Amino acid sequence: MTNSYSYLLEHNVKPSLQRMAIMKYLLTHKNHPTADDMYNELSKAMPTLSRTTVYNTLKILSENRACLTLTLDEKNVHYDGDTSLHAHLLCKGCMKIIDIPLNEVSLSVSESSDFVVDSIEVSYYGYCSKCQKKKIREQ
Ligand SMILES: [Zn+2]
Ligand SMILES: [Zn+2]
């Protein structure tokens, strides 16, 4: 497992206990949590953690590309500890965010132009298999 201390250093973020806890959470939870999800979970073990610290830390992590800020769900901002190039599927039924690999077409932009791509946000909207079944049952 990736060590959150060295991970923060690699991204030029000064490690503090709280930052390490937030980074570790993001690296071990691939379900694209919101700031509130992280606050609710982490404050159980860290009662001194404030919501503001969580928000500020996520901003720093995102600015230093240690995590991704996802805005595909217009109601909630989600965070992703996986900064490798990938696309997201958002289920409009359960609001679940699913990772999918980006296809070759989107990645070839770097090769076909002199533009250097350092981040890509590709989102698809629809319904996951569970919600499709639910929709059929409701009809
Ligand atoms: Zn769904
Ligand atoms: Zn993702």
What are the defining features of this structure?
139 residues, 44% helix, 7 helices, two-stranded antiparallel ribbon, 3-stranded mixed β-sheet, 15% strand, alpha+beta, binds zinc ion
How would you characterize this protein structure?
The chain has 139 residues and is of the alpha+beta class. Helix content is 44%, strand content 15%. The chain has helices at 4-10, 17-28, 35-45, 51-63, 104-107, 109-112, 129-138; strands at 68-70, 78-80, 86-91, 97-101, 123-126. It is flat and about 50 Å long. Residues 32, 80, 82, 86, 88, 99 line the site of one zinc ion.
Residue windows where pLDDT falls under 50 for at least 5 positions: none
Measured distance between first and last alpha carbons: 45 Å
| Topology order in helix (H) and strand (E) letters | HHHHEEEEHHEH
Secondary-structure content class: alpha+beta
Average pLDDT level: 90
Strands, count: 5
Query: What is the tally of helical segments?
Result: 7
Q: What is the topology?
A:
Elements: H1 4-10, H2 17-28, H3 35-45, H4 51-63, E1 68-70, E2 78-80, E3 86-91, E4 97-101, H5 104-107, H6 109-112, E5 123-126, H7 129-138
Parallel strand pairs: 3-5
Antiparallel strand pairs: 1-2, 3-4
Helix pairs in contact: 1-2, 2-4, 3-4
